[in-house]
Amino acid sequence: MAWTTTPIPVIVVALIALHFIAWWGLRLSLYLFHQSVGVARKVRGREDVSGLSKRFRTSFPRTTGILVARLTPEHHTGLALTLVVVAAIYLASLFGGLVEDLMEADELVRVDEGINQWLDVIRTDTMVEIFTWLTELGGSPTAIAVALVTTGLLWGHPRRHMIVPLWLTILGSQLTTYTGKFVMARPRPEFVTDVVATTPSFPSGHATTALAVYGFIAYIIASDLTTTRQRFELVYWSAVLIALIGFSRMLLAVHYTSDVAAGFLVGSFWLLVGFALAEHKQRRTPTKTQQ
After folding, report:
1. Which residue from 153, 131, 144, 147 is spatially nearest to 246, judged by alpha carbons?
2. Which residues contact 224 (CB under 8 A, 6 or more apart)?
3. Which class for 37: exposed (0-12), middle (13-18), buried (19 or more C-beta within 10 A)?
């Protein structure tokens, strides 16, 4: 039984509630982090601990040097880069596991088809019209236009070191996506709206593109922001836009849920690669980026 009215108000209320929860969750996380840092400093200042640390550095200077270089938070090539690499490896393993599940099990297919059928409940004319417009924001023509405009702005602004990482993120994610599409050759769901597609279904190119392009642009803008609240608002609403683009592919019945999830994993992996390269290039050319 289809809804007689659009569920858009429900979605808006849910996003506002989630915004509140996410903000206070972030504040709590930051508080706990600062508390743990304070405790760690007190522990490190104890004579027995500092003495043990000194003996370890003396006995294993090379190992200590590697650990300090990888875990120091003061440099982008330290803890930040280590976390990026670990996260990228984790995302790649998740994507590999999703592919394996799709190839070996019928359960994932049943879940995908069940979600697709459940979405019939909210496939009203208004919802289809709204999400047909929204899905175009993740299409290749729009994404390329946005990326070209961003490139022009970066070229005119002292941020030229961001251009190569931006395009590496975009092109790497697209290459991975279309390789996966034609290797897996997964059929799309049965089309039930006027929106159709010709390429294979897995993974979702719109989900990948949205996360790669809008995620990197959010990263560029965030580097100019000065407060935690400003960065939170930017990241949260960018994530909402990306999530809605991914959801639009499911609502319009051109992708299954696992297609969209895989697209987000691919986009996230290449986004982290782009972050790492951008931070590396910024570190190597500080005078050019700060002029």
Report:
1. 131
2. none
3. exposed
pTM: 0.80
Which residue is listed with tokens 């004319």? 125
Report which DSSP code applies to 189. P
| Average pLDDT of span 241-255 | 94
* Pair 49, 84 in one domain: no
Q: Phi/psi of residue 7, each to 5°?
A: -85, 10
The tens digit of pLDDT for each residue in 172-189 reads 999 999 998 888 888 888
Q: Find out whether the peptide bond into 203 is cis, omega within 30 degrees of 0.
A: yes
Distance CA 113, CA 106 (A): 11
Q: Is 4 domain-assigned? A: yes
Is residue 257 domain-shared with residue 184, that is, in the same domain? yes
Nearest to 177 by CA among 117, 266, 80: 266
CA terminus-to-terminus distance, the chain: 61
